[in-house]
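Narrative of accomplishments. A recurring question from our advisory board has been how the design workflow behaves on a single, concrete structure rather than in aggregate. To address it, we present the structure tokens for one chain from the evaluation set, followed by the sequence designed for it. No filtering or post-editing was applied between the two.
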């Protein structure tokens, strides 16, 4: 598995569960370009950041023992893996 602490942002495809109990959205796995699917082990924290009129939903997750951050852009409906 690649290191997620690369201080970069890359677009990813995310499989997420919406409307789950008290968490309105929970990312389950993501896929980087040219790689297989990576499962999210645990959802650590969620927050929302507003950039102008766009809400960015931020999910701090564990992937195995590595921390990663997934961000969902509510304007263009894109997901990004960031650190």
């Amino acid at each position: 598995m690649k290191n997620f602490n690369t201080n970069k942002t890359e677009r990813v495809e995310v499989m997420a569960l919406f409307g789950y109990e008290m968490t309105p959205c929970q990312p389950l796995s993501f896929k980087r370009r040219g790689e297989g699917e990576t499962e999210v082990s645990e959802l650590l924290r969620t927050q929302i950041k507003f950039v102008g009129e766009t809400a960015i939903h931020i999910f701090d997750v564990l992937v195995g023992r590595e921390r990663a951050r997934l961000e969902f852009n509510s304007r263009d409906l894109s997901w990004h893996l960031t650190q």
